[in-house]
């Protein structure tokens, strides 16, 4: 265990608890000080609190603590002070509330404030789940860049802390796996995230059947994560983030304004659009899209641009692209993105999967 110097700190223990299942004692350590530690100042936290965790000297515990000491990233739980005494290691970790599994159970299906789609369902992910998973991959990518891996990922052993309105993920409970190259275990980290998301999807169906949630998007990401191999690691994280699961408004708009017009020039893409039965209803033009269809028709007439072909799927894709491209000029009283997501939440992933991806110059055979 790395010990740099002797530190004397006055403190007070509060909220003490012992878990007989994990054989760990936890409590908050109140540290009176006029000068807040750097990590607290960074987040403007007025209450200088650390979490005291007592662990054994088992190899997994020592490895996990070493990772918490060496890895400096906002999504890695930091071990601020580590001390050895007898058969135990005392760790003062930065503040954290608890596992994200508990938070997700209370929030991911509590969606009263989220607008349902045209079919009366809610498309997963919810904003909370999207944020958590995005931060998880931020932390895992940092580990990959350091030549390290998690080795033990799950929602149950991943923590979070609340800084104002922002929930910040904290990866912890790392485990040393074996003698294979790090890329092998980095790929397994991605697969484990996929398994955790699959449990979210299964839980939604188990609890509500198919009547409340649409898991089309989350299930597609799960399948892609389960297929990650060691050879994918040089570029996998940028590829993961391009998935519609993570799209915000800016990314969505860029996709429809830039990528879709280019794709429509390719016969292969147009053939896929025309062959996709689920893309839109044959009578899609009968839906006014909350007034956006008329505004777009009027806009095109003023510009002397021919109408979209309202009997074809190509015309539908061009219509969506035009809505995002000319939203400001249309001066609509509704959000284009909100209306499209309400009407056809699956269209983003369907079109994304139709666009060819760059070729991969790696082998999938494990070294």
TrEMBL record:
It comes from Urochloa decumbens. It holds the Pfam family PK_Tyr_Ser-Thr. Residues 59-175 form the Serine-threonine/tyrosine-protein kinase catalytic domain. InterPro entries: Kinase-like_dom_sf, Ser-Thr/Tyr_kinase_cat_dom. It comes from the Eukaryota. This is Serine-threonine/tyrosine-protein kinase catalytic domain-containing protein.
């Amino acid at each position: 265990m790395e010990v740099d110097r002797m530190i004397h700190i006055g403190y007070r223990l509060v909220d003490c608890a012992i878990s007989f299942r994990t054989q760990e004692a936890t409590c908050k350590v109140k540290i009176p000080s006029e000068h807040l530690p750097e990590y607290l100042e960074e987040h403007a936290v007025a209450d200088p609190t650390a979490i005291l965790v007592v662990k054994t000297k088992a190899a997994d515990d020592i490895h996990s603590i070493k990772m918490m000491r060496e890895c400096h990233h906002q999504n890695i739980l930091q071990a601020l002070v580590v001390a050895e005494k007898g058969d135990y290691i005392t760790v003062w970790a930065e503040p954290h509330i608890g596992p994200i599994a508990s938070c997700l159970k209370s929030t991911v299906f509590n969606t009263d404030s989220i607008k349902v789609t045209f079919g009366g369902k809610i498309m997963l992910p919810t904003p909370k789940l999207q944020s958590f998973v995005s931060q998880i991959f931020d932390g895992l990518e940092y580990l990959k860049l350091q030549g390290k891996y998690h080795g033990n990922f799950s929602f149950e052993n991943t923590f979070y802390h609340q800084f104002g309105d922002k929930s910040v993920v904290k990866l912890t409970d790392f485990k040393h796996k074996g003698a294979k190259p790090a890329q092998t275990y980095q790929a397994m980290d991605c697969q484990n995230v996929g398994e955790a998301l699959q449990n979210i999807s299964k839980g939604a169906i188990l609890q509500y059947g198919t009547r409340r949630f649409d898991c089309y998007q989350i299930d597609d990401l799960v399948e892609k994560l389960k297929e990650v191999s060691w050879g994918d690691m040089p570029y996998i994280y940028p590829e993961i983030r391009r998935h519609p699961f993570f799209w915000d408004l800016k990314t969505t708009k860029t996709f429809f304004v830039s990528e879709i017009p280019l794709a429509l020039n390719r016969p292969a893409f147009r053939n896929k659009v025309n062959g996709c039965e689920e893309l839109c209803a044959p009578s899609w033009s009968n839906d006014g899209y909350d007034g956006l269809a008329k505004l777009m028709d009027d806009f095109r007439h003023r510009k002397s641009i021919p109408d979209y072909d309202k009997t074809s799927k190509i015309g539908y894709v061009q219509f969506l692209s035009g809505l995002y491209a000319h939203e400001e000029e249309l001066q609509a009283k509704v959000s284009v993105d909100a209306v499209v997501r309400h009407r056809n939440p699956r269209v983003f992933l369907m079109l994304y999967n139709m666009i060819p991806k760059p070729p991969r110059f790696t082998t999938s055979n494990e070294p």
